[in-house]
């Protein structure tokens, strides 16, 4: 018989940790498993289930960009996730308004989590989440900010059979051609943004205009640009006179802006995101393109107005997921803004709201299913019902796992009109979501199997 003292100390510690964990699981969590619908049906293991729910807590893997061009937006998104976890674990009134069956934790289990820096790189995000799945038995993973990351995590989730609730992702592909059964997304995206902001632009500026686009060279940029251009061309006779495509993290936009200056464009439609949007907008101003050309932000970037200044965003139309002054209309928005500001010291941007809602709706879906068993949770998402949110009533579309939700049109305020240092945008319209969405099969969605 092998002498246990001969084992390396790290191996002994790991063995003792596993043994302790099994003892805890046997003493605390087993009764809840025995009474759950999935266990009663004697379902075979799927993904990290049932190992991931064997204790009195469940683990969530979070990957957001904490470095690189999307870092500022990633940190805001992360704060939304963290506040949601805190609220779920304590049974906060805001969570209960969205997920009425939640008391403390999800199905009585506290949420624990790990955070990894994706740096907006798909490979980094996938490697981190694979570790969370393998080592921590993550029952759910989340991440985004970059749609390339979201698409990669979609594929990981489907392969590993672990639910992926998508963070920020504006690409049509995320719930289009790259959709998966194990992925869901609650925020707005290129097509809905285009169909919401398009009418506002035509009403304000009329038809037959010339537009220059600035597009980041990946799935988010290409699909948003296509949707916006398609709408304006078809419905307003607008012309894309140039489309300047740049790599993620470009430090200098002078060559692209020179081409735009020589294009004859009347509008600069900037699809860049994160710090790329800030740099390209600042440089457009320095080149003298702004305010000579009218700036349009078809997919609003959190913190853009703060970074470039209200004088630059004054009068600019943007489509967004949420803006904090919606607290004046929606009670749940007011609760969120107040609790977020109290904890973090600033008004939440839409990335934080999006992250919070994604976790709140996941809690609702699990509670509605009455189990963490992944196929049953997915079917819970697919079961038609109306849900509460910070922007009114919403629902999931079963065919592509996209939330049907409104898109918010905002216009930049003049510095003199700002009520406080964070009052950058005026909400012009909250556009109902159903009429903004393409047919479920239009973008090639094929969800795949449950097991």
Mean pLDDT: 91
Q: What's the story with the biggest beta sheet?
A: 7 strands, mixed
Give the strand tally: 14
Here the CATH topology of the largest domain equals: Rossmann fold
Name the shape in a single word.
Answer: globular
Structural class: alpha/beta
**Strand-and-helix sequence, N→C?**
HHEHHEHEHEEHEHEHEHEHHEHHHEEEE
The low-confidence runs, each spanning 5 or more residues with pLDDT under 50, are 1-40
Helix content: 40-55%
* Strand line-up of the largest beta sheet: 7-6-8-9-10-13-14
Summed up, the helix count is: 15
- The end-to-end span amounts to 41 Å
Rg of Cα set: 23 Å
- At CATH's second level, what is the architecture of the largest domain? 3-Layer(aba) Sandwich
Give structural notes.
This protein has helices at residues 9-35, 37-40, 71-90, 93-98, 122-136, 147-160, 190-205, 219-236, 254-261, 274-286, 304-308, 310-313, 331-344, 350-369, 374-382, and strands at 57-64, 110-117, 140-143, 163-166, 183-185, 210-216, 239-246, 267-270, 294-297, 317-320, 395-397, 402-404, 407-412, 425-431. The protein is globular, with a radius of gyration of 23 Å. Helix 5 packs parallel to helix 6. The longest helix is centred in the N-terminal third of the chain and has 27 residues, at 9-35. With 451 residues, it is α/β, with parallel strands linked by helices.
